[in-house]
Amino acid sequence: METENFIKACKVAELKEGVGKRVYLDDEEIAIFKVDGEVYALNNTCPHQQARKIHEGFIEDHGVVCPLHGWKFDLTTGNVAPDRRGLKTYPVKIENGFVFVNVTKKELSW
Length: 110
Ligand code: FES
Hints:
The chain is mainly β. It has one domain (6-102): 3-layer Sandwich (Rieske Iron-sulfur Protein). The chain is 0% helix and 41% strand. The strands form 3 sheets. It has a 4-stranded antiparallel sheet with strand order 2-3-4-8, with no helix packed on it. It has a 3-stranded antiparallel sheet with strand order 1-10-9, with no helix packed on it. 25% of the residues are buried. The chain binds FE2/S2 (inorganic) cluster. Residues 46, 48-49, 51, 66, 68-71 line the site of FE2/S2 (inorganic) cluster.
C-alpha cells in the first residue's frame, strides 16, 4: 500500500507550457511538465540507458520524448506503448499556486 507524501515542487508560474523542469524531491529525480494547462510528474531517468534526461524531452501527442533516442512516454501513465511500462509517474496536486508531487516510495515486498 502506498501512503501519501505530497511535497512542494515549484510554483505553477515557473512552468512553461511543454517545457520540462527537473526537481529533486525526497531523493527522487523528477521531471515536471505543464501541457495544455495540466501538470504531470514523471521520473527523470529514462529506462532505456538510464539517462537522467526526461526533463529535456519534448512533448508530442500527450507524451514526452526522451531527447537521446526518442523513446516516448505517456504523460499520464508513463507507458512506452499503450501497455508497456516505462517511467514511474507521480500524482500531482496544485494548491495556492504551487505544484505538489506525491513522492511515493517502493514498499518493501513481503
Ligand atoms: S536514453 Fe532515453 S531513449 Fe535512449
